[in-house]
Amino acid sequence: MTTTPEHDAKIARLTFASVYPHYVTKVEKKGRTKEELHQVIEWLTGYAEKELQEQIDQKVAFITFFQNAKLNPNAHLITGVICGYRVEEIENPLTQQVRYLDKLVDELAKGKKLEKILR
């Protein structure tokens, strides 16, 4: 699935710190914990608690966030629709990685078991 260059550029410029509070709110509203969210983020990106906080404090853009991440080798197993896009068909690698994260947060908020989320 092709996204527009404008869409991809907008995603690249977004800071992780600006989106992170929305992830926390989304999962906590559904009875999940911040610790579970961090577990999911660490599975995808390799960022442990301290490294994740550094990314937030430095207000890094998603492009830097994912350039410095150690993407899980099983990330390609993340499938489904998020924000109107089928994640496995997104052609831009950065946009796909951001949507992987969105999809995992969505699955966590919907009550999916961590064992299933962490493929």
List the helices and strands and how they pair.
Elements: H1 5-13, H2 16-29, H3 34-45, H4 49-57, H5 62-67, E1 81-82, E2 85-86, H6 93-109, H7 114-117
Antiparallel strand pairs: 1-2
Could you state the CATH homologous superfamily? uncharacterized protein sp1917 domain
Instruction: Give the second-level CATH assignment, the architecture.
Output: Orthogonal Bundle
Q: Hey, roughly how much beta strand do the residues contain? A: under 5%
Going across the major beta sheet, what is the strand order?
Answer: 1-2
Sheet with most strands: 2 strands, antiparallel
Estimated radius of gyration: 13 Å
How many H/I helices?
A: 7
Total number of distinct structural domains? 1
Q: What's the CATH topology label? A: Helicase, Ruva Protein, domain 3
> Low-confidence segments, ≥5 residues, pLDDT <50?
none
Large-scale geometry: globular
Structural class: mainly alpha
